[in-house]
Amino acid sequence: MTLDDISDPVGDDLTGWCERALELGAEAARPLAPGLVVTAEWVRLKCQFGCDGYGQCRTCPPDSPTPGQTRQVLNEYSRAILLRVGPHAIYDEHDEHYVTLRRAAADLERELFLAGYYKTWSISNGPCSSCDICDRDQPCVDPAHARPSMEACGIDVFATVRAAGWEIEVVRDRGDEYRFFALVLID
């Protein structure tokens, strides 16, 4: 499957929706066939055994979909849009680009839903940024934007981004250029 294999049975393409993603705050957006999204069990393990936020958010493991569930969900879609912000330099935990991309993906999901793409669903970047730690005794403070990250769902972001034709490298130092990615599934 290639990027050119994405088609819409009603005849429209995703160009307008990619442009809308840019208006919502993404810095780049491109169609992506869901078959090009790579899932792997090891990705979720890195959340469990490498992230100090493991289990603190409703959108993180163990509450997020497993890699197997994610693959099944991806197989139910024929099209997707990959969103990106960056490259930017000097990352910090409260980066405005991080929050903007999370919101852009969820807002694009909502607009697609209202346009009749009732199955649309977004998978975001990194841990939810609406609160520091979920208070599980209270309702979510921002359910409209709370989405699991691609990593939490077992998506190999590096392999997926490269399959889409974009560059991605390991950020070794806080001063290195970085990028964030989100995925919107559409049908």
Q: What would the keywords be for this entry?
A:
single chain; 187 residues; alpha+beta; 4-stranded antiparallel β-sheet; globular
Commentary on this structure:
The protein is an alpha+beta fold. It has one domain. Helix content is 28%, strand content 14%. The chain has a four-stranded antiparallel sheet with strand order 1-2-4-3. Helix 1 crosses helix 4.
Write the layout of secondary structure elements.
Layout: H1 15-24, E1 28-32, H2 41-48, H3 67-74, E2 79-88, H4 96-114, E3 121-123, H5 157-163, E4 178-186
Antiparallel strand pairs: 1-2, 2-4, 3-4
Element string (H = helix, E = strand): HEHHEHEHE
Q: Could you list the spans in which at least 5 consecutive residues all have pLDDT below 50?
A: 1-11
How many domains, in number, for the residues?
Answer: 1
Described by strand count, sense and barrel closure, the largest sheet is: 4 strands, antiparallel
Largest sheet: spatial strand order: 1-2-4-3
Gyration radius, rounded = 16 Å
Structural class: alpha+beta
How many runs of DSSP E, i.e. beta strands? 4
Strand % is 5-15%
How far is it from the N-terminal to the C-terminal residue, by CA? Answer: 17 Å
Measured as a percent range, the helix fraction is 25-40%
Mean pLDDT: 87
Molecular shape: globular
Number of DSSP helical runs: 5
